[in-house]
Design a protein that fits this description.
about 150 residues; alpha/beta; Rossmann fold; 6 helices
Amino acid sequence: MVRLLITGMSGVGKSSVLRELGERGYPTVDTDYGPWTTDSGRWDDMLMGALLGESTELVVSGTVENQGDFYDRFDHVVLLSAPVSVLLDRVRQRTTNPYGSTPDDREEIRSNHALVEPLLRATATVEIDATQPLPHIVDRVEELLR
């Protein structure tokens, strides 16, 4: 059984990958929704600790400041990456999440791409080019789950 974290910048496709994996029968948790993060935008230590303590097979999605505190509980940390122009185009077009719809949001995405993504890359165990077709990305992640 494998526990896997999918991380990356806003608009990279984390939720889409998670949705497809769920449809393929894998247990998933999207930490962008529900009680997983605190008001400060960090994962709730008690909730995430309990989730990862109970689950032997799980795919978690999210990008938060303290995710590194939990890396030792994941078998793989998968970074989905794409050029900032792709991310900005995707957040402009999406209808499932309002983040990215304002100029301030898009500036934050540019900044995070420049400053945060390199940190994620340095600690990820696998990086996947998220400009590929979604089924290909999901197939690659599914290989890691086997």
